[in-house]
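Weekly structure sync, notes
Attendees: PL, DS, HV (note-taker this week)

Item 1: NADPH-dependent 7-cyano-7-deazaguanine reductase
DS walked through the input record. Source organism listed as Sporolactobacillus inulinus CASD. Sequence as pasted into the shared doc:
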Amino acid sequence: MKGADTMDRSKEDLTLLGNKGTKYSFDYDPGLLESFQNAHPDRDYFVKFNFPEFTSLCPITHQPDFATLHISYVPAVRMVESKSLKLYLFSFRNHGDFHEDCMNKIADDLIHLMDPKYLEVWGKFTPRGGISIDPYVNYGKPGTRWEQVAFERLSRHDMYPEKIDNR
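Item 1 (cont.): predicted structure, written out as tokens:
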């Protein structure tokens, strides 16, 4: 039946996956995000994306900021399609927002798209002016055990910080 599952999911309205005429947006565009049906909604599991080439612009100086993003989530019914996520994250290239605002915006857009059980977004920005900023945002679906997981992970976040070596 796995082949049948794959066939059913391939009929979804995914417009970017496999599209040879990909166009890149240089302005923030949450409309680029696409989702598909989770084939295992009764199982809790993490999906993790690492995006080492995230860029945005400082809203004051308009200088570029660079980061590695880590996005992890426990899907419910919908999942984010990875090519659409890549194009969406690329759309921040000319977007002017503070690091914390970018991470919260990404979390909000993914929550709106998928309604996941759990989600976290962690941006590890390279230093500018001698300081790096690493905003961490998480979310647990209200009224579920994942709400408590989100609180626990946030309250213990970065208790054992990584060794920072100028990234």
